[in-house]
Amino acid sequence: MEPAISFSLRSHFVAAAWLCLMLAGTAGVHAQEVAAAPAVTATDDDGFVAAHRGFWRAFSNRDLWGISELWDIKDPLTSAILPAASTPSVGWLAVADSFRHSFAHNRNIKIDVKPIRWQRQDDVAWLVSAVRFEAIQTQTGQPIRMDRMLVTEIFERRRGAWKMIHYHAHFPSFDLPGLEPNSSDVIPVPIRARDGAARPSDDEIWGLYERFYTALEGRDLDGMMDIFSADGTVTALLPKSPVPFVGRDNVSSSWQRSFDEIDGLEIEASHTILGGSDQAAWIMEYGSMQMILKDAPYKVLYFPIMATYVFRKEPVGWRLAHYHSHLSVFDDGHSH
């Protein structure tokens, strides 16, 4: 997360922000307000919930060492997607550099985290939260406030301890005054990378991922929803919605409203990373999207997009339990 980095709306970014309003379903009546997280048992969830709380405590104290204690710093595919970066950070050194950059630009950080959902499947857990962030910009003394930043955290129990392995945060509102956007390079990794040996279920997970893409490009809502879990715990965080979509009906309605405005859609992934266990898995994605809107068929809009997918093993097979995407800051000459 990089809440300290602010940016102005340049002309080409205005078009993308305008597009995001429709891509998100625009926080309409179908979006659920932030609610308290469900109760967790004391036997198995204390570990990752404690790690979650420890991360935010360390962040508010600008304690990079404390953050490093909660991440699996030896995993080369540990990753973070930050609100004001143009690309993901891959590997602990890149992730740490992003946090370090954030802390250099902020002081007097105050954090208020409101969990929306937390779930655990085997040795993988994920938390969806709304975070209020306040700080003073170090260089200018200007106050910074983000009333609702939407965050996905993924933890895995490794070597007896819960470690953060992926983090995705975005702020739905773009009009923050101040600094220019920052870029963190993506470490070149092959499409469909996994740390360690591939698992037998990987092909099934990648198959669902590709089906999701095909359905999305074809604006096939039924095809997309077939990939989501059938129960009411599914969640989606979309680029310009200030509140999450919780439950299949709300997730479906958000996409339907978007498809009503779209005449053509094409997506291409540049980097994808797969992680997880035999019971739950996640994908980090960085790519590009081209879109034609029905009211502007003469104009093709292009922008980078970053996304997180969480899949879980169910009696009927693997299903998508959580989806989080946002449009990244346009790159100002930085390499990817």
* Number of discrete helical segments: 7
Report the mean per-residue pLDDT as an integer. 80
Give the CA-CA distance, first to last residue. 18 Å
The helix content is 10-25%
Q: Which residues form runs of ≥5 with pLDDT under 50? A: 1-44, 175-181, 330-336
Strand order of the largest sheet: 7-10-11-12-13-8-9
Q: What is the total tally of β strands?
A: 13
Instruction: Find the structural class using helix and strand composition.
Output: alpha+beta
The percent range for strand residues is 35-45%
Q: What is the alpha-carbon Rg in Å?
A: 19 Å
**H-E order:** HHHEEHEEEEEHHEEHEEEE
> What summary fits the major beta sheet?
7 strands, mixed
Shape: globular
Structure in words:
The chain has helices at residues 11-23, 46-60, 64-68, 92-104, 202-217, 221-225, 248-259; strands at 79-81, 89-90, 106-121, 124-137, 143-158, 161-170, 193-194, 235-237, 245-246, 262-276, 280-293, 296-314, 317-327. It is an alpha+beta fold. Strands 7-10-11-12-13-8-9 form a 7-stranded mixed beta sheet, with helices on both faces. β5 (143-158) and β6 form a beta hairpin. Residues 1-44, 175-181 and 330-336 have low confidence and may be disordered.
